[in-house]
Fold SH2 domain-containing protein.
Amino acid sequence: MNAGSKNRNFKVHMKDGEFYIGLKVFTSLEALIENYRRHPIFKNEHEKHFLTQPFQHPECGAFLPTAVDKLLRS
C-alpha cells in the first residue's frame, strides 16, 4: 500500500479457503478488501489508511484480486 511518503505492507495468509490478516479472518479476498475500504487497515495517532483501489500489476495488467481468484480456481 502506498501511504504517501511510505509503502506499507500487510501479509495476507490463506488457509482452508479463508484469508487472514493479523487476527482478522475473511471468507474471501473481496470481503477483506471491502472491510478495509470502510475501516482503516493502519492507524496511529497521526494517520489512518484505507484501501481505495486495487493494485494493477504493471507487467500483466491484471488487478490483484482478479489474478488471485484465477489462481484459486485452477
About this structure: The domain at 2-73 is CATH 3.30.505.10 (SHC Adaptor Protein). The radius of gyration is 13 Å. The chain has one domain: 2-73. The chain has two helices and seven strands.
